[in-house]
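I am still getting used to backbone structure tokens and would like to learn alongside you. Please make up or recall a protein chain and show it to me in full. Would you write everything just below, so we can both look at the same thing?
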Amino acid sequence: TLNQLMLFDYTLPETQQLRGTIQLPLYSELVEIGEASGGFTLACVASKGNPAGDVIAIYDITNPAAWVHRSTITGFRTHLMSVSSSRMYIFTTASEFKIIELAFPTTPGMRSTTLYGGSYTNYTALASWSNNAAALGTATTGLWLINTTNATAPLVSGIWNPVTGYSVHALAKGPGVLYVSATAATPTTPPAPPATHNRFESLLVTNLAAPAQRFLHSPTSGAGSQGYLDSLTYLSTPAGNFVVATRPGLDNYPYTFPAQNNTATLYALGSFFATENITAPVATVTLEQAHGNVAPGGASAPGGGSGSARFIAAADAAGLYQVAMPAQWAPAYAAVPVNTTVCHGADTFFNSLVSANPSSVTFQWYRNGTALT
């Protein structure tokens, strides 16, 4: 509401220090962090709905106490934005996919504009990694995987649309896989309309033309339905790597703007045949009034290890939440047994998958309260 970007120093875990305040263009709404040649850090801020014309302002925040406005991009309204390294990916309200080069932030270069057609509201989420790939989520036609190696001619190499009514809500990219929050249609008996169920999955996207599902939470797989997840953030910590997922509050579920979150769930990441493809919900924290993606916050925890030991969530009148990531967690199910019906005398098999830190876990199976041997 003040049209300001405030830059805080969270090096000390129990305090925050305001290092700089940037007066932004009116109606500024989207923020992404990028890099320029020479290791400079950029804040890319897009306005949304300015009657006088929307802009993207590029700020050099390498020294937050002495930030510099480098350039302003005009001529379109941003709907979705993702920045990876020195490349900015934009999806506009005219349903255009744009690639902009930020290596020289005083003269950002428009590399390409591709018209994808249809209403821009059908496009729901955007993620990117390095200068080679982007993922564009849609509400009706699945997840589009875009090869951007040639920035002047980006190509939709593959589409992930595994089930009927697949609708993407949020994306996050880790080093190995792409994490996707979606819903899908559940068939019902006519004339009742199809119901929907929530899906949280990890996709191997090394080959954009042939994405492969590695793990899935749904009503019948993994740890069951995880509910509606409206943002996903990959987070590296000294204790391990996580995906932090936020959920909207029940009073504005699921689309009321701004989407405020009641909770953030921490999913510990494990490996099976591919890097970090298994997600296990190990903790949930209440974050009243928070909205949008969380962000890594603060230096590493004492004792070593890479990554951030905390994350930050913005919460309007509630201020900024600083949440400590766990160093240990109790066993949490990544996959739970499902009900099985078999003929009398036949064998049946139950499988479960558990994440814990420390990782020593033992199991005891029961039938009607009696331990099985």
